[in-house]
Automatic annotation (TrEMBL):
Family affiliation: Belongs to the short-chain dehydrogenases/reductases (SDR) family.
UniProt xrefs under PROSITE patterns: ADH_SHORT
Signal peptide: none
EC main group: oxidoreductase
Annotated function: Catalyzes the NAD-dependent dehydrogenation (oxidation) of a broad array of hydroxylated polyunsaturated fatty acids (mainly eicosanoids and docosanoids, including prostaglandins, lipoxins and resolvins), yielding their corresponding keto (oxo) metabolites. Decreases the levels of the pro-proliferative prostaglandins such as prostaglandin E2 (whose activity is increased in cancer because of an increase in the expression of cyclooxygenase 2) and generates oxo-fatty acid products that can profoundly influence cell function by abrogating pro-inflammatory cytokine expression.
EC number of this enzyme: 1.1.1.141, 1.1.1.232
Protein name as catalogued: 15-hydroxyprostaglandin dehydrogenase [NAD(+)]
Organism of origin: Coilia grayii
GO MF entries: 15-hydroxyicosatetraenoate dehydrogenase activity; 15-hydroxyprostaglandin dehydrogenase (NAD+) activity
Reaction it catalyzes: prostaglandin A1 + NAD(+) = 15-oxo-prostaglandin A1 + NADH + H(+); resolvin D2 + NAD(+) = 7-oxoresolvin D2 + NADH + H(+); resolvin D2 + NAD(+) = 16-oxoresolvin D2 + NADH + H(+); 15-oxo-(5S,6R)-dihydroxy-(7E,9E,11Z)-eicosatrienoate + NADH + H(+) = (5S,6R,15S)-trihydroxy-(7E,9E,11Z)-eicosatrienoate + NAD(+)
GO BP terms: prostaglandin metabolic process
Keywords: Fatty acid metabolism, Lipid metabolism, Oxidoreductase, Prostaglandin metabolism
Length: 267
C-alpha cells in the first residue's frame, strides 16, 4: 500500500512504539490521528510532529480506549477532518497483573473496540475505502510470559481475534486486511513495569524468570519494531499473518489463511 495521502489512526501514539509508528507513517506522507489517554504527552508529541510534518497532517484526540464514546468520537472527528481512514494501528497497551481487569479492558477489549470502529469506517459495504488494521500483540501472544499471565492472555486474545477477523473480512468482502505485530521486549516506558511492585503483585518475586527471559530474548529498540511495522503496512499480500520481531530481525508467522480453508468472498 503506497502511504502518501493515506489517513492513519494510532492508539497509544503519545510515546513508545505508537509514537514510532506514527512518525514512520508521517515520513511516508500519510496523515496521522493520534489517540491517547495521556493529554500532556499527546499534545507534546503532536506539537513536535506538526513542526516536522506540518499542522495539516497531524491530529490528536484525548481518548481512553476503554471508553466506547471517546473512541467513537475520535474516529468520527478524524473522518470529518481527514475525509476517511485507510490504516488503523491498535497499539495502546499496559502491564498490570494486580488490576488485571484493567489490563484486559485496555489490551484486549480496547483492540476489539478499535477494530470494530475501524471497520465501520473502512469496510467497503459502508462506503469505506478498505485498508489495513495492524493490531499490536507481543511475542507473549504466541508463547507464555510467566510473570505476566493476564498480559499473556490478552495478547493471545489479540492474535486469536485478529486471525478470526482477517478471515471474516475476506468472507464478508470488507476489503480490509488485518495483521498482528509480535515483538519481544522493547526499550520503552513499559519495561519500567519490571520495577513496579504495585503492577506485578505476586509475580514480582519471580525476578529471576524475568532476568532469564530478558537475557534470552534481548531488548529491541523502537526503531527495530518500526522497521517491521513499515514493512507490514506496505506488504498487502499476507492478510491474517503475524510478524515476529526479535533481535535477529523480523519474519512472518503464517497461519492457515481464508483461502487455505476455502472461505469464499461474498463479492
Ligand atoms: N515494550 C515492550 O517490551 C513491548 C510492548 N508491546 C506492546 O506494544 C504496545 C505499546 O507499548 P509500549 O510503547 O512499549 O508502551 P508505552 O507505555 O511506552 O506506551 C503506551 C502508550 O499507550 C497509552 N495508553 C495506555 N493506556 C491507554 C488507554 N486506556 N487508552 C489510550 N491510550 C492508552 C499510554 O498513554 C502510552 O502513550 C502495547 O500494546 C504493548 O503491549 C509488545 C511487545 C513488547
Ligand atoms: C513483570 C513485568 C515485566 C515487564 C516486561 C515489559 C514489557 C514486556 C512486554 C512484552 O510484550 C513481552 C515481550 C516478550 C514476551 C516474552 C516471552 C514470550 C515467550 C514466547 C516464547 O516462548 O516463544
Amino acid at each position: 500500500m503506497a502511504l502518501s495521502g493515506k489517513v492513519a489512526v494510532v492508539t497509544g501514539g503519545a510515546q513508545g512504539l505508537g509514537k514510532g509508528f506514527a512518525e514512520i507513517l508521517l515520513k511516508n506522507g500519510a496523515k496521522v490521528s493520534l489517540f491517547d489517554v495521556n493529554e500532556d504527552l499527546g499534545k507534546a508529541t503532536t506539537a513536535a510532529f506538526e513542526k516536522e510534518f506540518g499542522t495539516d497532517n497531524v491530529l490528536f484526540y484525548v481518548c481512553d480506549v476503554t471508553s466506547e464514546k471517546q473512541f467513537k468520537d475520535a474516529f468520527q472527528r478524524t473522518v470529518q477532518t481527514f475525509g476517511g481512514i485507510d490504516i488503523v494501528c491498535n497499539n495502546a497497551g499496559i502491564i498490570n497483573e494486580v488490576d488485571w481487569e484493567k489490563t484486559v479492558d485496555i489490551n484486549l477489549s480496547g483492540v476489539i473496540k478499535g477494530t470494530y470502529l475501524a471497520m465501520d469506517h473502512m469496510k467497503k459495504e459502508n462506503g469505506g475505502r478498505g485498508g489495513v488494521i495492524i493490531n499490536i500483540a507481543s511475542l507473549a501472544g504466541l508463547g507464555p510470559f510467566p510473570t505476566c499471565p493476564v498480559y499473556t492472555a490478552t495478547k493471545y486474545g489479540v492474535v486469536g481475534f485478529s486471525r478470526a477477523m482477517a478471515m471474516a473480512s475476506v468472507a464478508a468482502g470488507y476489503g480490509v486486511r488485518i495483521n498482528m505485530l509480535c515483538p519481544t521486549f522493547v526499550r520503552t516506558a513499559l519495561l519500567n513495569t519490571l520495577k513496579l511492585e504495585e503492577q506485578c503483585g505476586q509475580f514480582q518475586k519471580l525476578l529471576e524468570v524475568n532476568k532469564t527471559f530478558l537475557e534470552s530474548f534481548g531488548i529491541l529498540e523502537v526503531s527495530d519494531v518500526v522497521k517491521a511495522f513499515e514493512n507490514l503496512v506496505l506488504d498487502e499480500s499476507q492478510n491474517g499473518a503475524a510478524v515476529i520481531v526479535k533481535t535477529e530481525g523480523f519474519h512472518y508467522v503464517k497461519f492457515p489463511t481464508a483461502e487455505d480453508l476455502q472461505i469464499k468472498s461474498k463479492q
